[in-house]
UniProtKB/TrEMBL annotation:
Gene: der
Family of this protein: Belongs to the TRAFAC class TrmE-Era-EngA-EngB-Septin-like GTPase superfamily. EngA (Der) GTPase family.
Pfam assignment, any one: MMR_HSR1
Protein name listed in UniProt: GTPase Der
Domain spans labelled Guanylate kinase-like: 1-120
InterPro entries in the record: G_ENGA, GTP-bd, GTPase_Der, Guanylate_kin-like_dom, KH_dom-like, KH_dom-like_a/b, P-loop_NTPase, Small_GTP-bd
Lineage, top ranks: Bacteria, candidate division WS5
Domain spans labelled EngA-type G: 179-367
Binding positions for GTP 2 per the UniProt entry: 185-192, 232-236, 305-308
Binding positions for GTP 1 per the UniProt entry: D55, T56, A57, G58, I59, N120, K121, I122, D123
Length: 454
C-alpha cells in the first residue's frame, strides 16, 4: 500500500497533524520535544483512495552522545524511511525556516521520493504571509495548515489523493477484513521485540529502559488474505504509580497520556495479546491487565515471552517447564479459562507464527453464529439435566434462547424472572455452550431478559 510519512524537526506539530489527518486522537501530543519516539502507522481513506500515513520522531541530525533511546530512535527512523513513497515535510510557522529544516530536507532527498511541503500552525489567513520564506527550501509551493484548528486539512487530503497510485484505490472488502490486535503488558516484558519478530521486521525501538514505548505504535500485516492491524502499547504500571516518575515531572505527564491511549486502544481492538515475562512468574499487575481485557469482552491470547530463559536456566522459581508454567497460568488466570497460552521467544522466534494462526482462529470464533434451533435444543437438554437455580424461592423458568450478537458472541435467554437467575447457573449455561461449540480465546455474554408478553 502507498506509504506517506510526516517528517520534520521536533515540535513542528507532526503528531497533531497526524491526528487531524486520521481524524482521531491516536498519537500523543505535548510541547515536550522528543515525545514521539517510534514509527506510528494508520490507514487513511479519502474518497476512493487509501494510503498508510506514518507519524515519525522529530529528526535530530546531532544525537546527544550517550542518549541510547535517541540513538535507537534515529536508527529505526532511517531504516523505516526507506519504505516511504511520499514525504510530507512539516515546517513550523512560529520558528520559520531554521538550519535544521534545511539539513533535514537535504537528508531526505537522498531517498529519491517526492516531498510535499506543509507549514503547520497557520491558524488564520493573516499567518499566510509567513509562507513565503518556505519557498527557500526548494521543494515547491508550501501549503499552510493548522492541525489544531483543522484548517486546510481537507485540501491536504485532496493533494495526497492525487499523489496516491491507482493500484491503492480504496477496497471496502479489505477494510471489513481488518483485525485490530492490541499488544498489552507491563513495562519491559518484551512487547516491542515480540512485535518486531511477529512482523518479521526490526521496526520498533527495543530497549531495557522502562517507558521506551510511549505512543500506541501501529503497523499493518497481511496474513492469509486478511489485514491485521497490530497496536503496540506502552507498558502499564500499577494505577497508583502511573504519572509518578521521581524527578521527572514531564515523563510522568507523558506516562499519563500513554496509559489513557492504552485504555482507548483496548476498547477499540478485537483481540488483545497479553505479554508476560516468565522470569517474574505472574504478577498482580499481569492479573489487573487481564481483568481489563475481560471487562471489555475482547479476544485474548496469553503470550509467555522470553521462554528462551527456561533453556538457559534463568527461571529459578521452579516453573521452568511448559507444563509447570501452564499450570501456574491456568491457576492465576482462572477467570479466563478460554484464553490460550503460547510460549514464545522474541530472541529466537520460536512459536511466534503460532500467534498469527491463533489470531485468525479467535477472530473466526468471535464472529460465528449459532442457529436458534440448535441453541434451544441444547437448552432443553441442559434443563433436563439441571433446572435453573434462583437466588430466592421463585421458580425460574427459561423459555428459549437466541444469539443476539457477535464480536463478542452474545446469547440472550428469555425467562419469567430474569433478575432471579443465580450467577452459578449463568456460568453453567456458558460452560454448556462452550462444550458444544468452540469459542477459544473469546469471552461470551450471557444475558437474561423477561419473556415477551403475548
Amino acid at each position: 500500500m502507498f506509504k506517506v510519512a510526516l517528517i520534520g524537526k521536533p515540535n513542528a506539530g507532526k503528531s497533531s497533524l497526524f491526528n487531524a489527518l486520521i481524524k482521531k486522537r491516536k498519537a500523543i501530543t505535548t510541547n515536550i520535544p522528543g515525545t514521539t519516539r517510534d514509527w506510528n502507522e494508520e490507514a487513511v481513506s479519502f474518497d476512493d483512495f487509501e494510503f498508510i500515513l506514518a507519524d515519525t520522531a522529530g529528526i535530530e541530525l546531532k544525537v546527544p552522545e550517550g542518549d541510547t533511546l535517541k540513538e535507537k530512535s534515529h536508527e529505526k527512523l532511517e531504516k523505516n524511511l526507506k519504505t516511504v513513497d511520499l514525504f510530507i515535510f512539516v515546517g513550523d510557522r512560529e520558528t520559520g525556516i531554521t538550519g535544521e529544516d534545511t539539513k533535514i530536507i537535504r537528508n531526505i532527498r537522498k531517498y529519491g521520493k517526492e516531498i510535499l511541503l506543509v507549514v503547520n500552525k497557520i491558524d488564520n489567513p493573516r499567518n499566510e504571509a509567513n509562507l513565503a520564506e518556505f519557498y527557500k527550501l526548494g521543494v515547491g509551493e508550501p501549503l499552510g495548515v493548522s492541525a489544531e484548528h483543522k484548517r486546510n486539512i481537507s485540501i491536504l487530503l485532496e493533494l495526497l489523493a492525487n499523489k496516491v497510485e491507482p493500484c491503492t484505490r480504496f477496497n471496502l472488502e479489505n477494510i471489513t477484513e481488518e483485525i485490530k490486535v492490541a499488544i498489552l503488558g507491563r513495562p519491559n516484558v518484551g512487547k516491542s521485540s515480540f512485535l518486531n519478530k511477529l512482523i518479521k521486521e526490526e521496526k520498533f525501538i527495543v530497549s531495557d529502559i522502562p517507558g521506551t514505548t510511549r505512543d500506541v505504535n501501529s503497523t499493518y500485516v497481511e496474513h492469509e488474505g486478511r489485514i491485521i492491524n497490530f497496536l503496540d502499547t506502552a507498558g502499564l504500571r500499577r494505577r497508583g504509580k502511573i504519572g509518578k516518575v521521581p524527578g521527572k515531572s514531564r515523563e510522568g505527564l507523558i506516562e499519563k497520556f500513554s496509559a489513557q491511549r492504552v485504555k482507548e486502544t483496548l476498547t477499540d481492538c478485537d483481540i488483545a495479546l497479553l505479554v508476560i515475562d516468565p522470569k517474574e512468574r505472574i504478577t498482580a499487575q499481569d492479573l489487573h491487565i487481564a481483568g481489563y481485557i475481560k471487562d471489555e469482552y475482547k479476544g485474548i491470547i496469553v503470550v509467555v515471552n522470553k521462554w528462551d530463559l527456561a533453556k538457559e536456566g534463568e527461571l529459578t522459581h521452579g516453573f521452568d517447564t511448559v507444563e509447570r508454567f501452564s499450570r501456574l497460568a491456568q491457576h492465576k488466570f482462572d477467570f479466563l479459562p478460554y484464553a490460550p497460552i503460547v510460549f514464545v521467544s522474541s530472541l529466537t522466534g520460536k512459536n511466534v507464527p503460532k500467534v498469527l494462526d491463533l489470531i485468525m482462529e479467535i477472530k473466526e470464533r468471535r464472529g460465528q453464529k449459532i442457529s436458534t434451533s440448535e441453541l434451544n435444543k441444547l437448552l432443553m437438554e441442559t434443563m433436563t439435566k439441571k433446572m435453573p437455580v434462583s437466588i430466592d424461592k421463585h421458580q425460574v423458568n427459561v423459555k428459549y434462547v437466541t444469539q443476539t450478537g457477535i464480536n463478542p458472541p452474545e446469547f440472550t435467554f428469555f425467562a419469567n424472572y430474569p433478575e432471579k437467575v443465580h450467577f452459578s447457573y449463568r456460568r453453567f449455561l456458558e460452560n454448556r455452550i462452550r462444550e458444544k461449540w468452540d469459542f477459544t480465546g473469546t469471552p461470551i455474554k450471557i444475558v437474561f431478559k423477561a419473556k415477551s408478553k403475548q
